[in-house]
Amino acid sequence: MSDVTVGVFTANEEQTIELGRAIGGLVRKGDMILLNGGLGSGKSVLARAIIRRILSQPQLEIPSPSFPLVLPYKGEGEKADWSILHADIFRFERQEELEELGLFDSPETVVLVEWAERVPALEKMAHLIISLNIPASGQGRLIEVASSADREELAQLGARFPVAP
Ligand SMILES: Nc1ncnc2c1ncn2[C@@H]1O[C@H](COP(=O)(O)OP(=O)(O)O)[C@@H](O)[C@H]1O
Ligand SMILES: [Mg+2]
Asked: How far is the CA of 80 from the centre of ligand 2 (A)?
């Protein structure tokens, strides 16, 4: 993991959504996508944009999965064979608990996990790891996207969303 890491900056929510759309375009079936970052850092905003892009449904309603802890999505039309799970594991500590949640049941399903750092064992299963940080100024978001080497197109995100000097 972490063969390609790119640091980007989004100045506002709209740009975070843009970034999510771009990341959504890189997602492959069966990807496990981890979202790390504190409360209000933008995990849900990003996850929503990624899911909407994967499913080509820009208006799809995507609530925060705080209760229930996992929400499933199914593709339609040419994406009919896609399925997604969106989880928030803030209250979890062990991989076994996530197995009970059903996060690893289907290798074809895309799984997005908010608060992934709560269960460090997830890292070795991940295809994309996204870490969101609120800068000391409180303005914008610094976002690191890491992936395995076969996702080199990710490097282009750095040019689209450069970190402010
Ligand atoms: N680049 C940004 N600059 C400033 N605010 C942002 C940016 N991106 C997202 N936000 C805001 O940050 C908040 C993130 O909320 P949310 O996605 O629910 O966080 P989390 O799921 O990490 O707790 C939203 O209010 C959103 O408008
Ligand atoms: Mg959230």
From this structure: 26
Residue pair 103/127 in contact (Cβ under 8 Å)? The answer is no
C-alpha of residue 13 to centroid of ligand 1, in Å:
6
Q: Report domain extents, the chain.
A: 4-153
Q: Cα separation of 162 and 146, whole Å? A: 16
Ligand nearest to the CA of 10: 1
- The whole model's pTM is what? 0.95
Strand partners for 143:
8, 132
> Which ligand sits nearest to residue 141's alpha carbon?
1
In terms of CATH architecture, what is 4-153?
3-Layer(aba) Sandwich (3.40)
Phi and psi dihedrals of 35, rounded to 5?
Answer: -120, 115
For the stretch 11-65, pLDDT in tens is 999 999 999 999 999 999 999 999 999 999 999 999 999 999 999 999 999 999 8
Tell me the pLDDT tens digit for each residue of 105-154.
999 999 999 999 999 999 999 999 999 999 999 999 999 999 976 777 88
67 Cα: distance to centroid of ligand 2 (angstroms) = 11
